[in-house]
Specification:
Rossmann fold, globular, alpha+beta, Alpha-Beta Plaits, 19 helices, Serine Threonine Protein Phosphatase 5, Tetratricopeptide repeat, 17 strands
Length: 571
């Protein structure tokens, strides 16, 4: 029997968040499958699920049952947990909704409708060039339906039903707005994620139940257990104990009234390194490596109540890690731990320099390439190269430099990197590198003698001079960019657009490169082979290409990237 209520109470709102998170997790692979291009790293559903799960976990930690405080908790959790463009947009939707809800104990349809309208407006503002036919459109349709329904009904259940129907209508319109969706025969993946969230919330409200939040097991490389920065490996393996200047990793949450982030950051700075102070005026997350954790807690305690206090002895952690990673018969050499973040040997915690660099990569080969170019922190993005905003914030924070240049190296990471840049206490420039080869070009021309803005501009210009191609495989039958593709076909893409498809890897790769070279005169072509390609096969392909195209200089590198057999850079 349906629930009839004129006010949405906090306990029910909590249940709606949990139900939405559960439903999104259950359907994330189906949403991933809607990616316009049938590549194996279509990840919209996964990114939205991980982002919303971060929001739900923050709600789970919130002891209040006021709608406003729960909405604020969800917004905070989603911001730091946001992954990829879809995750960042979702976090902005939750942030806009929370701004309207923040002072409310309960909410009626009028307030809820205004919340959806503010959510949609904030998401549109966050995107530099909003495109219709995306999740923005679906959120807008939902908000408009909510506005209309609030004028004729006071029942929150029937109101939310109308909102859901509006979102479904918007989703059905997306192929009419984007020709790529129509050609591929799919609706927008992010829009489907919005509908999935609203469906979960509506069913929980209709059935008047508060489900248990399902804790999702990690399913991707990037979801590995995070490792503290002091235990991150350098090129030579785990850092020796004696290189740790500060022994105790201290983390906590501070909650109070009007906490000055800059002031707290300035007070804590003398007591250690790897300092992270992020949040808002009421809730702040603190992370610092220090030899005086007691003083850190004393300072933080002046600003409010302290929660989730963790103090870990990194020297002992380092010893344990060294024991666990020694290989029998390895002559004392250490195996490199599989960590999300790697601190390059060029980054010395004891040396504070003017500018440092963070790069997002995937694969051990790419990690070595970027370290060789002097990058301070290499953030391993896993299969889909979508680290969360929080992981990007931490990477920027641990660079021993006053200002940081970030190379996202994936169009789906740029937005999250820009969000991270807004919440750290450093000057940050995000170079909008859309691929790993573009990032290499940018890092190659970095000049520490230039002013920060000038150095960043030079790097961005260099990245734009690279045309890249990728060779992967299709995960479904489809037609895209006028090309018919069968499941498991090899496909070649230029800057993300499908150019060629075939059932032979070598032929497909060569045809892609032919098309790249007919478009521009090349001086240098670099070929990066992936994890699933053996070195000898890559060398034979390189020899064939040299014979066919003798003019450009050819280079071969082991990239080690998953899913993509070859990445090509034409300069």
């Amino acid at each position: 029997m349906g629930l009839e209520k004129v006010r949405l109470e906090g306990s029910m709102f909590r249940g709606m968040i949990y139900a939405a998170a559960n439903r999104l997790n259950q359907n994330k692979e189906k949403i991933d499958f809607l990616n316009v291009y049938p590549v194996p790293d279509g990840d919209t559903g996964t990114n939205m699920s991980l982002t919303f799960l971060a929001a739900a976990k923050e709600v789970e930690k919130c002891s209040s049952n006021l709608v406003g405080e729960l909405a604020t908790a969800a917004a905070k959790g989603s911001l730091m947990g946001a992954r990829g463009n879809s995750g960042v947009i979702l976090s902005q939707l939750l942030r806009g909704f929370a701004q309207v809800m923040q002072d409310l104990h309960t909410a009626g349809v009028t307030e809820l409708a205004r919340g959806l309208q503010e959510a949609s407006a904030m998401a549109y503002k966050a995107v530099m060039r909003p495109v219709e036919g995306t999740m923005l459109t679906v959120a807008r349709y939902a908000a408009e339906a909510g506005k209309q329904a609030a004028r004729r009904d006071t029942n929150v259940v029937t109101w939310l039903e109308a909102v859901l129907q509006g979102a479904k209508t918007g989703l059905s319109e997306t192929p009419k707005m984007l020709s790529a969706l129509a050609e591929a025969g799919v609706v927008d993946a992010g829009g489907q994620g919005i509908v999935t969230i609203l469906t979960g919330a509506y069913l929980a409200l209709k059935e008047d139940r508060v489900p248990t939040l399902m804790v999702v097991a990690a399913s991707r490389e990037q979801e590995a257990e995070p490792v503290d920065a002091a235990m991150l490996g350098s090129k030579s393996g785990i850092r020796p104990v004696e290189s740790l200047q500060f022994q105790y990793c201290t983390e906590l949450i501070v909650r109070g009234g009007r906490i000055p982030l800059d002031g707290l950051r300035e007070q804590l700075h003398p007591f250690g390194d790897s300092l992270l102070v992020v949040g808002d005026l009421e809730t702040v997350k603190v992370h610092i490596h220090s030899n005086n954790p007691g003083q850190v807690l004393e300072i933080c305690g002046q600003y409010g109540e302290m929660f989730e206090i963790q103090i870990n002895n990194m020297v002992e952690q380092n010893r344990q890690a060294s024991l666990k990673t020694k290989l029998p018969g390895s002559n004392g050499q250490m195996r490199q731990p599989s960590n999300l973040m790697q601190v390059s040997s060029t980054a010395k915690d004891t040396v504070q320099k003017e500018t440092g660099i963070v790069a997002v990569t995937l694969g051990d080969g790419w990690k070595a390439i970027y370290e060789g170019l002097g990058v301070d922190v290499v953030l391993n993005g896993g299969h889909t190269m979508n680290p969360s905003t929080e992981e990007l914030v931490e990477a920027i924070s641990i660079v021993p430099a006053r200002q940081v240049i970030v190379l996202p190296n994936n169009k789906n990471v740029i937005f999250a990197a820009e969000q991270a840049a807004k919440v750290v206490g450093k000057k940050v420039a995000v170079i909008p590198t859309t691929g790993l080869p573009q990032g290499v070009a940018a890092a190659t021309v970095y000049d520490e003698n230039l002013e920060f803005a000038e150095a960043a501009k030079r790097m961005e210009d260099a990245s734009k001079g690279v045309v890249s191609g990728e060779v992967t495989y299709a995960v479904r039958d489809t037609t895209t960019d006028g090309i018919q593709i069968k499941e498991r076909d090899f496909i070649g893409l230029e800057q993300g657009k499908v150019m060629v498809a075939g059932n032979d890897l070598i032929s497909t790769t060569k045809e892609l490169i032919r098309r790249l070279l007919t478009k521009r005169k090349a001086e240098l072509v670099s070929l990066f082979y992936g994890r699933d390609v053996i070195h000898q096969a890559a060398r034979e392909l390189l020899q064939q290409l040299r014979a066919e195209f003798p003019d450009p200089e050819w280079e071969l590198y082991e990239g080690g990237q998953p899913l993509y057999y070859y990445l090509v850079a034409v300069e």
